[in-house]
Amino acid sequence: MTYAWLIPALPAASFIILLFLGKRFGKWSHFVSVGAILSAFAISSFILYQVIGGRGSEVLIPWLSIGELDLNVGILIDRLTAVMLMVVTSVASLVQIYSVGYMKEDRRYHWYFACLSLFTAAMLMLVLSANYVQMYASWELVGLCSYLLIGFWFEKKAAADAAKKAFVTTRIGDVGFLLGLVVLYYAVGNLDVGSVLAARLAPAVATAASLLLFLGAMGKSAQFPLHVWLPDAMEGPTPVSALIHAATMVAAGVYLVARSYPIFAASGVAMDVVAGIGAVTALMAATIALVQRDIKRILAYSTISQLGLMMIGLGVGAYSAAVFHLTTHAFFKALLFLGAGSVIHSAHTQDIFEMGGLAKKMKGTAFTFAVGGLALAGFPGLSGFWSKEGILTAAFVKGAYPVFAAALLTSLLTAFYVGRLYFVVFTGSMRKNMQAKVHESPLAMVAPLAVLAFPAGLVGLIGSPLFGNAFQGFLRLGESGEHVNLMVMGLSIAVALAGLGFAWIKYSTGLLPSGLIKTSNPFFLLLKNKYYLDEIYTRGLVAPVVGGSRALFSFDSGVVDGAVNGTAWLTSKAGDLVRRAQRGQIQDYGLVMVLGIIVLIFWMLTFARL
Amino acid sequence: MSGPELVVFSLLGLAGVGSAVAVVSGKDLFRSTLFFGSFLLSVAGLYFTLEASFVGIMQIFVYVGGVVVMILFGIMLTQQEGARLNASLERRLTVAGPVALLAGILIAAIMTTSFKTVREVPGVDIATLGKLFTNDYVLPFEIVSVLLLAALVGAVVVAKEREK
Amino acid sequence: MGLEYYLALSAIFFGIGLYGALTRRNAVAVLLSIEIMLNGATLNLVSFSRFTPAKSTGQVFTLFIMAVAAAEVAVGLALVFALYRAAKTVDVDEIDMLRG
Amino acid sequence: MNVDFTAGSLLVPAAWGLGFVLFSALNVMFLVWMERKVSADIQSRWGPMVRGYHGSMQLLADMVKLLIKEDILPAAADKKMFALAPFLVFIPALLALLVLPIGPGLIARDMGVGLVYYLAVPSLASIGIFVAGWSSGNKYSTLGGMRSAAQLISYEIPRSLSVLGVVMLAGTLSMMGIVNAQKSLWFIIPQILGFLVYYIASIAEVGRTPFDLPEGESELVNGYFTEYSGMRFSFFMMGEYVALLVACLMGAVLFLGGWRGPFGLLPQLGPVWLLLKAYALVYVAMVVRWTLPRYRIDQLLEISWKVLLPISLINVALTAAIVFVGGEWLRGLLG
Q1: Over the stretch D285-302, which tens digit does the pLDDT of each residue have?
Q2: CB count, 10 Å around CB of D278?
Q3: Nearest-CA distance from B86 to chain C in Å?
Q4: Would you kindly state where each structural domain of chain C is located, as residue ranges?
Q5: Which residues of A are less than 8 Å from B101 in CB distance?
Q6: CB spacing of B46 vs C9 below 8 angstroms
Q7: Which chains are adjacent to chain D, needing at least 3 Cβ pairs under 8 Å?
Q8: How far apart are the first and last CA of chain A?
C-alpha cells in the first residue's frame, strides 16, 4: 500500500500546478483539481477494499533528527484511516464538482481550486499521518487553508474578519495540541502514532495529554467555548462551508480524538470532560440554531451541535458510534450545505424568512435537501438516525444520564429546527420578488446533490442493526457495537417525530398564532445573541488584550522607539558635525595635514628627541 | 660662504622668494605663471651656485621651457573672465599662520642642527651623473621612463574630448 | 656653513608653495604652488649633495623629480582640461562634486 | 662656484656682452639686407637699390623710420607685459651666444653642459612669444602666440634628439670639445641625418617660411606681433634674425667643424670660417623661405612627430651602434 502517499500527493500537486500555471488555465483550472481529487478518491476506495480484506500498513521514514528527538514521517493506514479517507475524498470530490458551477463567475477561479486542493491535501495528510508531528504540521496547514478559503472573498470585511477569527480561535486549540505533544514526547520519548498509542501511560499523564489534545480538537471541531469561529466562517463560499463542516476542518478534531482514543480511554477524567463539553456544546448550539434566520448559520450551529454529539459518543466510550456519526454527518451535512448553496445561488439571500415555496421551482434541490434534513433530524431509517442511535444508546447504557438527557434534548431541538428550516424555505407561498429569479441550479450543482443524497440517506444502514452493525464491527475489529436498546430507540424516534411535527404545525399549517414567542422574550434574545459569547469574548478577552497592547505599544513607540530614534538623531547630528570636516575641499584637508605635521614635529622635538 | 658668494646667493634667494610670493599671491594667473618662470630661473641659478650645472640646465630646459609653456597653454584654454584667484582674506590668514609656523619650525630646526658637512665637494661632471643613471639608478631610471610614457598617454586620454 | 642657508631658503620656498596650494582657488594656480613646493624640496636635495659626502645622489634624485614633475604637470593639466569641460570652471572651491 | 668681484673679472663679461650686442646688431642689419636681396633675386627683381651701394644702407633708413614712428599701445593690452615681451623674445636668442666657440679658446663661457644650455636657453623665447600674443588683447595675436609656442615645443624634441649623435661621437657636451672632436672629420658626414633634422627643426623653431604659421598673414593678420609697431616691432624682427643666425652658427659648430677651415686651411681665419659657414646655411634658409609655400598646421605637426622624430631616433640608434661596435676605429678616424 505504498502508493497511498499518492492520495495527498495528487491534490498537493494540483495545488502547485494551479499556483504557477493557474492563470494560464483560467476557466479550465477545475480539471486539474477535480481530476486529482477523483484519482485520490479512486485510490482511497481501493485502499478501503484492501483494508476490509484485512490489510493495514505503517510506513515510517526517518525525517530529521534534532538532538534526542528522532522524527519520522510516514503513512499509517488502518481502518479508521481508510474510513476517513473515503469520507474526505468523496465529499471533497463532490464539493469540487459542485464548485465548478457555484464559482463559475469568480475571477480568482484558479486560486479557489488551488486552495481547495491544498485544503484537501492537508486533510488527507492529516488523516494518513503516522507521526504526531507530521499530523500537527498537517493540522496547521488545514488551519491555514481554512483561513485562505474563509477569507476567499477578502474584499468583504466580514470575510476577512471571519478568516482571522477562525485562524486565531483555532490557534488557541493548536497550542493545546502542541503542549499535548510535548507531554506525550516526555512520556513516551517518541511521537510515532503507533508507539504513542501502544504505550501504557500513567493516569495523570494520560489525563494531561488527552485534555491538551482535546483542547486542540475543541478548536478545530468548534467545541464550546472555542466554537465561535464556525458560524462566522459562513462568510466563505458555500462549497467551502460544506467542505469545512462535513469532511475536513471540523472532522479533524474528532479524528484527532478518535485516533488518540487509547490515550483518552486511559483517563476517566478526560472521558468525562469530553462527554461534558460535547453535551454542553450540543445543547447550546441546538438552542441557538432555533432562532437563527440565516440558512447557513442554522446549518453551522447544527454542525456544532452534531459535533457535540460526536464528542459525547467519544466521551461515553462509543468510539465506533462517534466515527460512524462523523461519517454519516459528513454526507448529509455536505448535502445540506450544498443544497443551501443551491438555494442561495438562486434566491440571492441567506435569510430564510425572505424565502418560501422554493420547492415548486427547485424540485431537485428541495428533495435532496429534504433527504439531508431528515437524516440530520434523525428520521427513522435514514443514516442520521442510526448513527445518533448508537451514541444515545452508549450514553444510556453507560449510565451517563445527564449527558444522555442533553443528547436527547438536542435531538428534539434538532428535529424542530430542521423542520423549521425546511418548511420555511421550501413550503408555503413564494415571495413576489422571488418568483422571477428563482430557478433550479445548473447540473454541475444538482448532480452532486443527487449523488450525495444516496449516501446521506442510506449510508447509515451499514452501521444499523439491520446489517449487524457492520461499520462499528469493522472499526473495532469484529467486535459489534452496542446492542439495540428498544427504549432508547423509541425515545429517539419519538423526539424526532415530535420535533418535526411541531415544526410542521408551527411553520407550515399556521395553526399556532404567530406571536406565540415574543421576540423581546429575554430567553429568545439570549439565544438570538448566541448566549452573548462573542460579546463576552470581546469585553472579557479582546478588550483587555487590546488595552494591554495599546499600553505596550505606547511604551514601545514612546520609550523604546524614542531611545532608538534618539540614538539615530544623535548619530545624524554627530554626522552633520563630522561632515563639516569632509567638505570635499582638498585644501581644507591640506590645512589639517599642516596642523598635523606641526603637532608631530612638536611631539618629536619634545618626547622623541633623536 | 665667502662674501661674493653670499651676495650672489642673497640676490638669487631674494629673486626666488619674491617671485614665489608673487606666484602665490598675484591676482593675475598669467603673471603668476611668468613669475613662476622667474622663480624657476632663480632656483636654476642656485643650482649653478651649488655646482650642479646639469641640474640647473635641466631646470631651465624642462621646467622653464616645458612646464611653464604647458601651464601657459592650460591658462589659455581654461581662462575665465573675472574668476577669483584667491581665497577669502580670512582663509588666507587662517592658512598663513600654520604655514608660517611650520616654516619657522623648519628653519629653526635647520639652524640649530649641526650637519656633518664637507666643504668643496667637487662638482660632478655629466659623465658621472650618466654613469649613476645607467648603473646605480638604472631601475628608477627605467621606471621614470615608463612613468613618462604613461603620463603622455594618460594626459592625452584624459584631455581628449569624448566623442559623442 | 653654507648648507643651512640653502636649507632655510628651501624651507621658505616650501612654505610659500604650501601657502599657495592651500589658498589659491584656481586649479592651475594650485599646480603652480605645488611646483614651488617641489622646487623647495629639490633645492634641499641638491644642497645636501653639494655639502655632504653622499656624492651626487641628490642631483640624480632631483633629475628624477623633474621628470616626475613634468609628468605630473602634464597629467594635472589634462585633468584641469577635463574638469573645465565637465564643470566649466577651474575654481577649486566650486568643484566639490565629492562633497558628502 | 668661484665668484670673483674684482674689477678685472667683471670687465671680461661686460666686454663679451657688449660684443654680442654689437655683433648681433650688425649682423641683423646685414641679414635684413641680404634677405631682401635674395628674395629679389629669386623673384627676378632688383630689391633696394637707392640708399647706399645696392641699397646696403636701406636698413638704416628703415631703422630711422621705425624709431620715429608712433609707439602704439593697444587699449586692451596688458601694458607691462606688452612692453616686456619683445625683450623676452630677443634676449634668449642673444644669451645663446654665450656658449658659441668663435675660435680656438675663444668662447665666452665653455660650460660642461654647453650644448644643453644652447638647446634650453633659446627655447625660452617661446614664453616671450606667448606673452606678446596674450598681452596684446587681440584674439589673433593670442592664437598666433599659442601656435608659435606649440610649434616651438614640438620642434624642440627632434632638434634636441638630432644633436645626440654629435654628443655620442664627441663624447662631451662642451661646445669647445665638440669643435675639437671634428679635427679630422666634420660631423656632417657621419651625422648627415642628424644635420638634416637639426637644420629643418631649427628653421621651424625660428619660425621662418615654410614654418611661419604663427605669423601667417592670411590667417592671423600677422600673428603674435600684429599689435606691435615702431621700436618694439623691430625688436621682434631682430630677435628673429638673431635666432636664425645663432641657429646657423651652432649648426656650423656642431656639424661643420666650427671655426676650422676645410682640410685644415688657414686656421688663423677661425671666426671668418665660422661666419662663412653660418652664412652659407643662412643663405640656404633664405632660398628655402622664398621658394617653398607655407605648411598647414596639421602638416607642420605631422612633419615634427611623424618624420623628424623617427628619423632622429633612428639616427641615435645608428650612431649608438656605430660607437658601440667601432669605437676604436672611430676614435682613430676622429683623431
Answers
A1: 888 888 888 787 788 888
A2: 23
A3: 5
A4: 3-87
A5: 598
A6: yes
A7: B
A8: 93
Q: Check if B99 contacts A (Cβ < 8 Å).
A: yes
Q: At a CB cut-off of 8 Å and minimum separation 6, what does A594 contact?
A: B95, B98, B99, B102, C18, C22
Quote the ipTM score: 0.72
Q: For D213-237, b where at least 16 C-beta lie within 10 A, e where not — what string?
A: bbbbeebbbbbbbbbbbeebbbbbb
Q: Do B95 and A597 touch (CB under 8 A)?
A: no
Give residue A536's Cα distance to chain centre: 23
From chain B, the residues in CB contact with C78 under 8 A are 154-159
Query: Min CA distance, C73 vs chain A (Å)?
Result: 18
Q: Which long-range contacts (CB under 8 A, 24 or more apart) does B151-160 make?
A: B151/C70, B151/C71, B151/C72, B151/C74, B151/C75, B152/C71, B152/C74, B154/C75, B154/C78, B155/C74, B155/C75, B155/C77, B155/C78, B156/C78, B157/C78, B158/C75, B158/C78, B158/C79, B158/C81, B158/C82, B159/C77, B159/C78, B159/C81, B159/C82
D and A touch with 3+ CB pairs <8 Å, answer no
Percent of the residues in chain D that have a pLDDT greater than 90, as a whole number: 1
- What residue spans define the domains of chain B? 3-88
Backbone dihedral region of B84: left (phi > 0), alpha (psi from -120 to 50 degrees) or beta? beta
pLDDT in tens, A196-216: 777 777 788 888 888 888 888
C-alpha cell at A606: 619634545
User: What is the structure's pLDDT at B163?
Assistant: 64
How many residues belong to chain C? Answer: 100
- φ and ψ at residue D171, rounded to 5 degrees: 75, 20
Mean pLDDT of chain A: 78
Smallest Cβ–Cβ distance between A598 and the set B94, B95, B98 belongs to: B98
Tell me whether B94 touches chain A (CB under 8 Å): yes
CB-nearest to A598 from B87, B95, B105 is: B105
Cβ pair C1:B117 closer than 8 A: yes
Mean pLDDT of chain B: 83
Do the two chains C and B touch, given a threshold of 8 Å on CB pairs and at least 3 pairs?
A: yes
Which residue is associated with the grid cell 605637426?
D301
Q: Domain B3-88: which topology?
A: Four Helix Bundle (Hemerythrin (Met), subunit A) (1.20.120)
Q: What is the pLDDT of residues A56-95, one digit of tens each?
A: 666 666 666 666 667 777 777 777 888 888 888 888 888 8
Domain C3-87 has CATH 3.20.20.60: no
